[in-house]
Structures are given as structure tokens and as C-alpha cells.
Amino acid sequence: MTAEGWIMMLVSVGGMCAFLGWCVYKVVATPGSTEHLHSQADIDPGDREKD
């Protein structure tokens, strides 16, 4: 692989790793984020009959 190929690969992989790290940091460090977490059981599509 040429030097330009290595540079492009390192920039791409490094950028994606940095973006993943930023996303994980935002999820972990945001205060009160646990109050906004929902599971599949919490979702009500509204178009099904109630039992």
C-alpha cells in the first residue's frame, strides 16, 4: 500500500474511533440520561387493541 493509502486509512479509522469514543462519552457523562432510557416494553404504537 502506498503512503497516501496508509494516511487515508489511519485518518478514516482514527476518525471513526474518535467519533465512537465521543458518542460513548456523551451517553455516559450526560446527567439524567438514565431517565430517558426506554425498553421495547415501554413503546406503545397505539394501533393495537388494549386487553
Write the layout of secondary structure elements.
Blueprint: H1 3-29
Organism: Natronomicrosphaera hydrolytica
Transmembrane segments: 6-25
Protein name: Cbb3-type cytochrome c oxidase subunit 3
Largest sheet: none
Strand/helix succession: H
Question: How many β strands by DSSP?
Answer: 0
Would you tell me the overall average pLDDT?
Answer: 84
The oligomeric state of the chains shown is: single chain
Number of helices: 1
Give the helix/strand class: mainly alpha
Broad shape = elongated
User: What percentage of residues falls in helices of 4 or more residues?
Assistant: 40-55%
- Rg calc: 20 Å
Poorly predicted tracts of residues: none
The termini sit apart by 63 Å
Beta percentage is under 5%
Keywords: Membrane, Transmembrane, Transmembrane helix
Organism: Natronomicrosphaera hydrolytica
Protein name: Cbb3-type cytochrome c oxidase subunit 3
Transmembrane segments: 6-25
Structure report:
By secondary structure, this protein is mainly alpha-helical. Helix content is 53%, strand content 0%. The protein contains one helix and no strands. The mean pLDDT is 84.
Concise account of the structure shown:
The chain is mainly α and 51 residues long. The chain has one helix and no strands.
Note the main attributes of this structure.
51 residues, mainly alpha, elongated
